Each structure stands twice: as structure tokens, then as C-alpha cells.
Amino acid sequence: MRIPKDATLLRIFVGERARYDGKPLFEAIVLEARQSNLAGATVLRGPLGFGHSSRLQSAKVLALSEDLPVVIEIVDAPDKIDAFLPILDVMMRDTGLITLERIQVLRYGPSPSA
Description:
By secondary structure, the protein is an alpha+beta fold.
């Protein structure tokens, strides 16, 4: 699979407790991205954050949160990301934050000479 040099970064912010069809939302999004043949997805768990409620979510031992921030990053061609957005909208319902950035892909996978 190839990604064009000029690509799009889709970044999705959700809480760890958010669910979709009985599984964690972040997991469901990654599985759906794979099903949609997107180039790849990475899930990052945040040790500290807050969202629209302004309630602080922390991984500190004394204030252990059960709803830490999770970020899913997906990179692919702009048209493939655009096609995924309506699916994502249904999955996210009224939770989270979605951002898009234009990016340049410098490398994806093994080099052609490998």
C-alpha cells in the first residue's frame, strides 16, 4: 500500500471508557479503519488531560482515573480519510474531538531498496 506524499492526519480524542457496540470506542475505531483499508492507525493513551467538561483525568496513583484520554491517529490519502469521516461520525455519536491536518509523508514502511 502506498500513501501519497501529501496526506491527511486524522486525530481523534476520546475517553478510555467510551464504548461502541460493547467494546472500547478506540478499539472499534481502529478495527473499522482497518476494515476500510486505511494505511494505519495508532492508539496513544494519555496520562493526563481534560476535555469539554474541564474535569481533569489523571493516571496519578492518588487520583487514578478510570477514563484516561486516548488519542487515535490515522494517516492516509485525503480522499480515503474523507470517506471514513461519516463512519466515524456515527461511531462517535456525541463524544470526543476530531481534527484533521494536512501533512507530508516522508516514509511509510520499508524503503524500496530493502
